[in-house]
Amino acid sequence: MEDLSSFWGPVTSTHEWCELNYVHSSYIAEFFNTISNVPCILLALIGLVNCLKYRFEKRFSVLHLSNMILGIGSMIYHATLQRLQQQGDETPMVWEMLLYIYILYSPDWHYRSTMPTFLFLYGAAFAVAHSQVRFNLGFKVHYALLCLLCIPRMYKYYIHTQDRAAKRLAKLYVATLVTATICWLADRLFCKHISLWHFNPQGHALWHVLMGFNSYFANTFLMFCRAQQRGWNPKVEHFLGMFPYVDVKKPKAQ
Fold this sequence. Notes:
The protein has about 250 residues and is mainly alpha-helical. The chain has helices at about 30-35, 40-55, 60-80, 85-105, 115-130, 135-160, 165-190, 190-195, 205-230, and strands spanning about 235-240, 245. The protein is about 65% helix and about 5% strand. It has a two-stranded antiparallel sheet with strand order 1-2.
C-alpha cells in the first residue's frame, strides 16, 4: 500500500495492515482497525466497575485501566498511521504484559519490593529504547516472549481451580488467544491474496475484537483466583446474561 496524504499527512508508521487507507473518512486511515478497539474499551470498563464495586486490590483496577488505555492508543494509531502514535500503541502493550507478569507471580514472590521495582525499570527502559529505535520483528518477538512467560502461571492457576465456571473462563482465554493469533497471521501473511478478494475479512480488526475479549476473560479469571486466595468465596456471574464477572462474599472482618 502506498503512503497516502490525508488529514494526518503521509503514513510514517513502520507498517500498515491489510486494509485500504482512508476509504470511509479522510480522518480515519484504517476504519475497521480503528473502531474494532471499542469492545476492548467497553469490556475493560465493565471489569473496572466490578473491580471497584468489590474493592479488589489496586493492581486489578490498574490492569483494567491499562486495557482501556491500550484500546484508545490502538484506535489513535490506526486512525493516523503515524510513527509517534504507533509507539503510543506498542509501548503500552509491553507495559500491560509486565503488569500481567506482576499479578501472576507476585503472590508467591518472597522479596515483594524487588519485582515491581525491576518491572518498572524494565518498562521505562523499553519505552526509552522504543522511542529511539524502530523495532519491527524484534518488537513482535519480545511481545511474544512476554506472553509466553504468563502461560505457565496461568496453567498453574487453572489446575488449582476446581470451579467449572472459572475453568471455562480460562478455556475462553485460550480459545480467543489462538483464534486471534490466526486472524493476525492471516492478515499479515496472506494480504496479497486477500486484497484480490471481493470481501476483506479484516483479520487485524478481528484480532482487536478477540483480544479485547481475551483480556477480559484473563482479567476475570485472575480476579476469581485472587478472591479465592483471599477467602472471599468468589462466584462467576453474568452481566446481561453474557459478560462474566466475579461476585464475592467477603468475611465480615474484611
